[in-house]
Amino acid sequence: MQVIHPRCAGLDVHQKTVVVTSMITQQDGTVQRERQTFSTMTTDLLVLDDWLRQRQIEVIALESTGIYWRPVFTILEEGRTVILVNARHMKAVPGRKTDIKDSEWIADLLRHGLLQASFIPPEPIRELRELTRYRKTLIQERADEVNRLQKVLEMANLKLAAVATNVLGKSGRAMLEAILGEQQDPQILAELARGRLRSKLPALQQALEGRVQPYHRFLITRILAHIDFLEQSLIVLQREIEERIVPYAEAVELLKGIAPLQEKAIATVVSEIGVDMDRFPSDKHLASWAGVCPGNHESAGKRLSGKTTPGNPYLRAVLCELAWVVAHMKDTYLSAFYCL
Question: Can you spell out the DSSP letters for 251-291?
Answer without folding.
Answer: HHHHHHTSTT--HHHHHHHHHHH-S-GGGSSSHHHHHHHHT
